[in-house]
Design goal:
The chain is α/β, with parallel strands linked by helices and 361 residues long. The protein contains 13 helices and twelve strands. Strands 1, 2, 3, 4, 7, 8, 9, 10, 11 and 12 form a ten-stranded mixed beta sheet that branches. A hairpin with a 4-residue loop joins strand 7 and strand 8. Helix 2 packs parallel to helix 3, helix 9 crosses helix 12 and helix 10 crosses helix 13.
Length: 361
């Protein structure tokens, strides 16, 4: 937090709250580095919760499935991919849908409107009790981005709620931190998704030219973190994008929440450039999984299959910084051998077999 916050329009109570947040963050970070586990409590109204990371260790994770549908039809592909997993994690639950609205650029620059419509309709059919969508844009005003994409009119039509994270107050953020955290003060995570019963990600398949290297489900979580908390001058996104540990910091966000379902629209992909524009290929695939590491690893294999940047192509997939750090924190599967790519038809299976070879190479 900015040490010069006091005296810049804050009340005494607001100033003390920010001081408390800073001291709490530094204390918990020190404890994490010393291996001291602190209890996580539900915060009182207006307080800040320190969200601890999972305790699952690498090597503990069982096999996980990634549904793989070769298609150029997003609607059909999403429906088939979810059905192929054979699960219904949304029945009777408040679903929080996290899209990729970094900008209003067309897919794969952002989540395609057909993806939103299909997922929301599918979740209502599967028995969801409530659906909320929210995000924070990194390359534009979030509300304007959502308006350009048509989110609000779609919400009126299909009956779901929309939250613009930029418009949350100071009490709309909870502080996340992990063992050996690379964030200087931790990272503020939006409260609404944490208060839902299940978080569902709708991510794209693309590279990231500004230090992330690739942006799929793990990187999509950055939209849940504040750029700045109202009343404070510290810029968390400046810290993220200027750090040599950017990719590790991306992974750390994912350690503080569970994701019940991920759907990746890979009908088109950026193999270079990104996240808004780039070298586009017709990759013709829709993926679904419950494991962020697994689906991103398969996504990286697809990018390598079509030819991608040196940063994404270098070394083994599970040695890439985003994935390696996520494995350390127990976010998901810990080796490519534990990923089972499942398909429905011969064309999908032939395509998947080529991607399996890249994944394991």
């Amino acid at each position: 937090m900015d040490k010069n916050t006091k005296g810049k329009g804050l009340s005494r109570g607001e100033f003390l709250k920010l001081v408390t947040l800073t001291l709490t963050t530094l204390f918990v970070k020190a404890c994490a580095k010393l291996g001291v586990n602190l209890p996580t409590e539900t915060p009182d109204s207006g307080s800040v919760e320190v969200v601890s990371s999972p305790t699952t260790q690498p090597g503990d994770k069982p096999m996980t499935q990634v549904a793989f549908i070769k298609t150029d039809d997003r609607v059909q592909g999403i429906q088939q991919a979810i059905d192929l997993l054979g699960i219904n994690p949304v029945e009777g639950k408040h679903v929080f849908l996290k899209p990729n609205f970094n900008s209003a650029d067309p897919a794969p620059g952002s989540t395609h409107p057909d993806v939103l419509r299909t997922l929301v309709t599918k979740f209502w059919d599967m028995g969801a009790s409530k659906i909320t969508l929210g995000d924070r844009s990194g390359m534009g005003d979030t509300r304007a981005v959502m308006e350009d994409i048509g989110v609000f009119s779609l919400a009126d039509e299909l009956g779901f709620e929309v939250i613009v994270f930029d418009e949350l107050g100071a009490d709309g953020w909870e502080l996340g931190i992990t063992p050996d955290c690379h964030w200087e003060l931790g990272f503020p995570v939006a409260v609404p998704p944490l208060n839902s019963n299940i978080i569902v990600q709708a991510c794209c398949l693309k590279t990231h030219q500004y230090g992330g290297h690739f942006t799929m489900s793990l990187k999509n979580s950055v939209g849940m973190v504040a750029q700045m908390i109202p009343g404070d001058t510290y810029n968390y996104m400046t810290e993220l994008h200027s750090s040599k540990y950017q990719r590790e910091m991306i992974a750390e966000i994912n350690a503080v929440y569970k994701c019940g379902l991920i759907v990746m629209d890979g009908v088109e992909a950026f193999t270079k450039g990104g996240p808004a524009t780039g070298t586009k290929v017709d990759s013709q695939v829709v993926l679904a999984a419950t494991d962020r590491i697994a689906i991103d690893a398969v996504g990286v294999a697809i990018l390598r299959y079509y030819g991608t940047t040196a940063d994404v192509a270098r070394g083994k997939i599970f040695e890439l910084a985003q994935i390696a750090r996520a494995v350390e924190l127990g976010v998901g599967v810990d080796s490519p051998e534990k990923i089972e790519i499942v398909t429905t038809d011969q064309d999908s299976e032939a395509y998947a077999e080529e991607i399996r070879a890249v994944l394991l190479s």
